[in-house]
Design a protein that fits this description.
Elements (H helix, E strand, L loop, with lengths): L5 E5 L4 H6 L1 H10 L4 E7 L14 E5 L7 H15 L3 E4 L4 H9 L4 E5 L3 H6 L2 E3 L10 H8 L12 H6 L7 H13 L8 E3 L12 H13 L4 E5 L4 H11 L10 E5 L7 H9 L3 E3 L4 H8 L4 E4 L8 H4 L8 E4 L4 H4 L21 H9 L3
Parallel strand pairs: 1-2, 1-4, 2-3, 4-5, 5-6, 7-8, 7-10, 8-9, 10-11, 11-12
Length: about 375
């Protein structure tokens, strides 16, 4: 096949996965400057990609909505047919989505040979053994591009140096500035803390978050606790345990919630861009903060498939500090924590709040 005029990027999984995959967009635009580039991502993530340089269209995948069931699969095939893609890159092997790509007649289908269905659905697949976590997830995605037609062995160094990318929406930025101003935080060097996560990896214990937030507030550093849907109660529990730290008319601890404050993903990105540092576990909001170039600090588990070597912030050390309680060799676990059967258990609490505080102070 000649060099494609229309390309489709498939990343129908979570927020962080999509964000760390944005260097793929940049590399595709470099190699195929005149091609039409379409993303397929979940509906709730799509607004973050709108406005991304070099991106032409986003297919909003709704697996529990208009794309559910057999009728939804037919609609999904129609949506993919509508972009006229000549080549697709599945950055995550989703059987339903990849089957729809095949049914839509996309002739050149690239993806990782990781599951049984992938052998049948990708005609230009690649074996990567991602569970070994020897490379970053973004690098695995960039590696797949070498299987595209017309590829000329372009190095991925340029894409990596730039890191992930998200364009901050001007309207969301206006909302974030107003939210900060209403709480007396405009122009102040604030630390964001996001203690919640979806459960794909081990989290830092809640007690450690409380210790960290309390230490920051005591030192007079304003803290903004952010929380997504279903995380509001936990964030307010942390806030209640720490107090506001006022005394000069400014409450040093504020909670910004998706449920109460109407914080959407674009608004979260805008708010993060106004913060001096952002602390979070291995979760999408951490990668979102790094994409808007806010320095990040995180505590990661040593388990191989959860390790920061694969899932950590995809930016240089000047923008990120990642702490792990023990080395991956000491842990020795590949897929999941053994709990009390492990001599290191519970290991995540071994990272002290003072260590995270030291990492934060470098940017304050």
């Amino acid at each position: 096949m000649r060099r494609p005029d229309s390309l489709l990027i498939l990343r129908p999984d979570r927020l962080g996965d999509v964000i760390v995959s944005t260097p793929v967009q940049r590399m595709l635009r470099t190699v195929y400057p005149h091609a039409r580039i379409t993303w397929l991502v979940q509906d709730w993530i799509a607004p973050l990609l709108e406005g991304l340089p070099g991106m032409n269209k986003v297919i909003r995948y709704e697996p529990k909505g208009r794309h559910a069931g057999w009728a939804g699969l037919v609609r999904l095939v129609g949506d993919i047919k509508g972009v006229g893609a000549q080549a697709s890159v599945a950055l995550q092997s989703d059987r339903r989505v990849s089957a729809a790509v095949l049914a839509a007649g996309v002739p050149w289908r690239v993806g990782p040979y990781s599951k049984m269905h992938s052998v049948f659905l990708y005609n230009h697949g690649m074996r990567q053994k991602r569970s070994e976590s020897v490379r970053h997830e973004a690098d695995y995605g960039l590696e797949l591009l070498g299987a595209l037609p017309g590829w000329q062995n372009f190095a991925d160094a340029g894409a990596r140096a730039a890191g992930p990318e998200v364009v901050v929406d001007p309207g969301a930025l206006g909302w974030a500035r107003e939210w900060m101003a209403e709480r007396g935080l405009a122009g102040m060097r604030c630390v964001g803390v996001h203690p919640g996560m979806g459960g794909s990896a081990l989290n830092w214990p809640r007690e450690r978050y409380i210790e960290l937030v309390r230490a920051l507030v005591t030192r007079g550093v304003p803290v903004v606790l952010t929380c997504g849907l279903g995380e509001d109660a936990a964030a307010r529990e942390i806030a209640a345990a720490c107090g506001s730290g006022g005394g000069d008319g400014v409450a040093r601890l504020q909670v910004c919630s998706a449920e109460i404050d109407g914080m959407t993903l674009p608004r979260l990105a805008a708010l993060q861009s106004l913060l001096s540092v952002f602390v979070a576990p291995s979760t999408g909001p951490l990668h979102l903060a790094s994409a808007v170039r806010t320095p990040v600090v995180s505590v990661y588990p040593p388990i191989r498939v959860q390790h920061p070597d694969r899932w950590g912030p995809y930016v240089g050390t000047e923008h990120a500090r990642v702490l792990t309680p023990v080395s991956r060799e000491t842990c020795g676990e590949r897929f999941r924590c053994r709990g009390a059967a492990c001599p290191q258990f519970p290991c995540m609490e071994k990272v002290e709040a003072s260590q995270v505080l030291d990492a934060i102070e470098g940017w304050l």
